[in-house]
Each structure stands twice: as structure tokens, then as C-alpha cells.
Amino acid sequence: MSEHISPAPQRCGAPAFYPDAGLPVHAGLGLKPEHFRQILETLPELGFFEVHAENYMVDGGPFHHYLTRIREHYPLSIHGVGLSIGGDTALDARHLDRLARLLDRYQPASFSEHLAWASHGDVFLNDLLPLPYIEQKLERVCTHIDQVQTHLKRAMLLENPATYVEFAESTMDETVFISEVIQRSGCGLLLDINNIYVSCVNHNRDPYAYIRALPLAAVGEIHLAGFAREQDANGDLLLIDSHGSAVAEAVWQLYEYALRLVGPKATLIERDADIPPLDILLAESRQAERLLQAASNNVQIKEARA
Amino acid sequence: MTKTTTAAALALALGTFLTVASTPAVAGDMAGMEKCYGVALQGKNDCKAGAGTSCAGTSKIDYQGDAWKMVPAGTCEETASPTSPTGKGQLEPFEAV
Amino acid sequence: MNGQQEFFAPLLDPELPSPAGLTSWNGSDPQVRYAVYRNNVVSSLIDALADTFPVTQELVGAEFFRAMAGIFVRQQPPRSQVLAFYGESLPQFIEQFPPAASVPYLADVARLELLRVRAFHAADAEDFAAETLGHRLGQVEDLSSVYLTLHPSLGLLGSPYAVTSLWAAHQGITDITGVDPYKPEYTLVIRVGLDVQVRRIDVAVFDFIVRLHQGESLGNASDQTHARQPEFELVSALGFLAQLGGISCIKTGKEIQT
After folding, report:
1. Cα–Cα distances in Å, from C125 out to A241, C29, C222, C229?
2. Alpha carbon distance, N-terminus to C-terminus of chain C
3. DSSP state, A60?
4. N or C: which end of chain B has fewer CB within 10 A?
5. What element of type H or E holds B29?
6. What are the angstrom distances between the C-alpha of B2 and each of B45, C208, C238, C250?
7. How many beta-carbon pairs below 8 A join chains A and C?
């Protein structure tokens, strides 16, 4: 597989930001309120926790109480869902300020957001909506990422989306669009393996080729999650990025493939619906940790041979 | 002067109150309830997609026309309602007296 | 495709057709695929409301609540990215929602549930020991120069309906069939440590704490309450508030001026 290892990142003219190296190369878990107490009582072996930024944009109370204490024991990744980086509307300055305060308070090892839009005008839709891949959107996304990185004084990771429709007006592939964004803005890549699988099934693409087409040297974190199965109007399979079940076998296989190309990277198990007991999620994180270890052994063998 | 007391007298009385009253004298009749609430409330922002291709987002409901057929059908039916003929809450609008 | 407006509008309006310019690899009708976004926008926001208003939902049943919430979501979608407080205007909406008219106390139950969410997420405040309150009061001469700052989580609700008893019945604390919904109740909501507490209080204590909340001095709030509610007892009211950690600061007139 060595022929697929990506070249060094090209950053002509990009600002002097680089993907966070902060997250430890281990498996982590999405932090859920129903697990707060058990985590503090048992301090399970985990590389990091990840939270959705917007859930902690409140003044005080139990959410901050528990996150503060959990943060004392684990590195943290803050994952935004509300910036609307792919939006036609300008970034919301108040929201950027809230984000800056949150990052200042918790000093996360990584901050990430989505290649999507969620707001239109002053309406927030609470969904990650798709955008056509055209030059005008590319420029807008780069401008927005620039504003975010400048305001937050750090590089962010951008997550590849899960989508259900495509746009007739798109002039470039999603992977080309993402590669351009990363090269122009200097942000890193949050490689969401489940999103790749979901989108590639939904649009009849080869997920392995999709991964190879991405700028893998920019990967700062990997996401794994479960999907739901539906059908489109022709009765063909339509996968939904539901985060409501265990990581599927096909996604584990794609993850192993990605690790061979990217090398071991901090990996998150995401679960946002039908939250199971913590032990079930810890078992999934151990599965990711085993694959990370194997990937890391492979790297050592390659280095020894070189 | 205030019907109750001066500041000094209030301070004294308050001290006594706080020493003597192990439970508040005022109708604090729901003390200590629902201790588990601290983790019951969810974070409402997330990045999942739900509901799939169900009709939640496309169903057309108009409560001003005749389309709205639903009536409340929850625990309100169990509540005592002295103004309803059955003594229970009822489903049709009525004037509470 | 005419920008994001065309993708946006049908998300909240089921009467509009799905946007033009969407494609699918197999030529299947993109409307079904676009419906995934429509569904997620509406159902995720309904879920957020159901999480904030669980007893409101139980009172009318999930089917009714979700249908009502769906109309609310389309009329008043969130204006903030922070969804913790989405639904602040649901009580007013319920009051003007004809199909809910048979449950006249529904809006006030929703108000109580909002107070709980606000209390849950409210700012933390220093503990102000009840003994300190007594000590400080001992140092002042005139209660009309004393101002109390109440805990940021403290909320108050006066209702012509027995909303707190109704709410308590849904926590398994009392039997719902014994609750007369048409009996006025006065309620204090506050976070004590990490727990949100709901306390039914009498009308005099309610009046008094409302006055403090509005910035009246301790002496004035006490006098005014006493004038309307002769049974009012300042000592027990203040003691109750102090024991719950409801007072986070005490200031005298002098301190306020400087």
C-alpha cells in the first residue's frame, strides 16, 4: 500500500497554521451527560473526550461542572456544529466570540467544524446541509475558515460531510474541493470514515478511491460512527448518518485501510442517539485502539526497513 | 417602622430560625425531589441525522382548517377537573369556572 | 440553483416543492433524498423541545405534542446556534394554539419546565452562608438600605393553575388523580448545588421574593408584602431563602452608591 502514502502537504501561500498535533494518538469517545458521573468515578482508559461546542455555551451548572472535572483527567476535543462555514451568510460574530471563550476556558487539544451550512439569515436549522462544489463556494469557505482561524488564533480541522443529494451545478469532486480548501486555508482534515462510507454508498462512489483522493497528510483526527439504512425513490440503499448504532463492519474495514495510508491518528467513536451504557462504547473504543496499535506497529516495521 | 422588626432584631431572629428550623417553615414541600436531574437533561446540539426519509419534514398540518384532528391524549385526562361532568379532565374545550 | 435560499425555504415549509438542481446517481427522484434534510431539521428541533418540556408532552401525549411542536418549529425556528434554551416562546404559542385550549394549564406547566432548564444552566454563584447573612444584617441600622442579590438560577412562577402539583405528579411524588388543576399555585425554582429544586411556596413569600428579584430593598419588600399579606413572616421567608442558597450577595445602600 505504500504507493498510496500521500506526499508532504503543499502549503503555497497558506497561512502559518498547521493541523493540531495536540490530540493523543489513541481512541476517544464523545462525552454524553448520562455518562458524566461514571466517567469521573471510574476514569476509564481513553485517549480523549470530544464535546459539541454549542452544548457548553451556557453560563454554568452541571455541564460545566462535569466537563471541568473530566478535563482535569483527559485531553479534550471541541467539535462545533453551528458555525455554518459553508453558508452564504457571513459568520456570526457573536458565535465566534462564544467559541473563543469556550476554547479559552477549556484549552482543547483540537477544534474542528464541518464542511456544511446550518444557518440561513438569522435562522439556525440544526442540521449539516450540503453545498455545491463550485469556485464561488470554495472561496467563501476559505474566507470563513480564515476568519475562524484568525479569531481563534489556532488551526482548525474541517470534517468531510455525509450527504444525501448532489448538485447539478457542481464543477468539482468533493475530494478536490476539500483538497483545495485545505491547501488554501491551511486547515487540517477531520477524516470522518462513516461520512465517507455513507456518502459513497449514497452517490455510488468507491470509498477507497475517495480516501486516496484526499490530502491525507493533513489528517488530524478520525471519526467513526454508525449509520441507519433507508431507501431512495428507486428503492436503492440510502444511508443516514444517524450516529445511533455501533460502527458497521464495512466502516471498520475502511478505517483499517485509511490507517494504512494515513498512519495512526486520534480516533473518535461518535454516538449521539440511542446512547448505550458507557461499557458498550468503551468496548468500541478498544476495538479502535487495537487497530491503532496495529497501524503503529506497521509504521515501525516500515521505518526499520527503510 | 416595618411591621416585623429592626435589622438587629431580624438578624437575631434569623439566627435563631436557622439554628432551630432544620426544615424550612415555609411550604417547602417538595424538598430534595428528583436528585438525578443533574444528568437527565441532554445536550441538544449534535451532528447526527435523524428520522431518515420519514414524513416528519413533509407532512402538512393546518390547525386552522379542518385538517387538525388530534386531541390531547396524555395524562391530562387523569387530572381531577371539578368543572367537567365526569370529574376528569376532558378533551373538548370548555370554560373553567 | 438560486443559492441557499432555494435549498433553505422548503426545509421549513412543506407546501414548497423541493429545490431544483438536485441530482442522484441513479436518476431517482431527488425529492425523497432532500426529505432527509427536511426531516432532520424538523424532527431534531421537535426532539429538542421534547427534551425541555417532558411533562408538557406527557400531559397531552407524544402524538399531540410533536404535531404542535412541528407547527411551532416552522413558525418560530431557532435564532441561536445554542439550542439549550430553544422554546422560550413555546408557552405563549400554546396559549394561542386552539387545539390545546382544553388543557388551559398546559402553557404554565411549560413555563415551569423552562424555569427548570434556565436554572440548570444558570451561572454559578459563590455560596453565601446563611450565618453570614445574619452577621451582615446585624451590622446595618435600616432594612430599607439593604439589598439582596438572588442566586442567578432562581426563578418564580405564579399561576392560576396547580402547575407544580401537576409537575410533581409526573415525577411520581404525588398522585395525579388527587390534583385539582384549577387551584392557584406559587412556585420557586432554584439550583442547589447541581440539583434543580422546585418548591411550592405561599403567595406572601412569592410576593416578597418577586419584590427582591425586582430590586426592592429588603425593608421595602417586607413592608409592601406585609401590607398585602398580613400573615407574612419576614424571618421565616428570609430563612427559607437563605437555606436554599437563594441569596448570593448582600449590599447596603452605601455600597451601591459607591
Report:
1. 40, 56, 25, 31
2. 61
3. S
4. C
5. none
6. 51, 14, 15, 19
7. 138
The CATH fold of domain A12-305: TIM Barrel (3.20.20)
- A159 φψ region: left (φ > 0), alpha (ψ -120 to 50), beta (else): beta
Residue contact A124–C78, C-beta within 8 A: yes
Residue with cell 436549522: A125
Smallest CA–CA distance from B41 into chain A, residue: A33
C-beta atoms of A233 and C41 within 8 A: no
**Which residue spans of chain C are classified as CATH 3.90.930?**
123-258
Q: Which residues contact A170 (CB under 8 A, 6 or more apart)?
A: A132, A133, A134
List chain C residues with CB under 8 Å of B65.
Answer: none
Assign domain C123-258 to its CATH architecture. Alpha-Beta Complex (3.90)
Distances (CA, A) of A101 to A53, A231, A238: 11, 42, 39
| Residue ranges for chain C with pLDDT beneath 70 | 1-2, 127, 254-258
Neighbours of chain A (3+ CB pairs under 8 A): B, C
What does DSSP assign to residue A161?
Answer: P
Is A127 touching C (CB cutoff 8 A)?
A: yes
SS3 call for A159: strand
**Interface predicted TM-score of the whole assembly (ipTM), two decimals:** 0.94
C-alpha count within 13 angstroms, C-beta hemisphere, residue A46: 29
Is some CB atom of chain C closer than 8 A to the CB atom of A52?
no
Where would I find the beta strands (DSSP E) of chain C? 22-23, 146-150, 155-159, 185-192, 195-201, 247-252
Q: C-alpha cell of A248? A: 458497521
Name which of C3, C79, C121 is nearest A59 (Cβ-Cβ).
C121
DSSP state of A163: -
- Residue A160 is classified by DSSP as P
What pLDDT does residue B80 have? Answer: 59
pLDDT in tens, A196-220: 999 999 999 999 999 999 999 999 9
* Contact with chain B for residue C106, Cβ under 8 A: yes
Q: What is the mean pLDDT of residues A32-40?
A: 96
Q: If you measure CA to CA, which chain C residue comes closest to B10? A: C235
Q: Identify which of B5, B24, B52 has the shortest CB distance to residue C234.
A: B5
**Residues C239, B21: C-beta atoms closer than 8 Å:** yes
Q: How many CA atoms lie within 13 A of A268 on its CB side?
A: 29
Alpha-helix residue ranges (DSSP H) falling in A186-228:
193-202, 207-212
Backbone phi, psi, residue A120, to 5°: -140, 125
- Chain B contact present for C100, CB below 8 A: yes
Pick from A225, A53, A62: which is nearest to C83 by CA?
A: A53
Q: Where are the domains of chain A?
A: 12-305
Is-contact A159 A190, C-beta < 8 A? Answer: yes
pTM (2 d.p.): 0.90
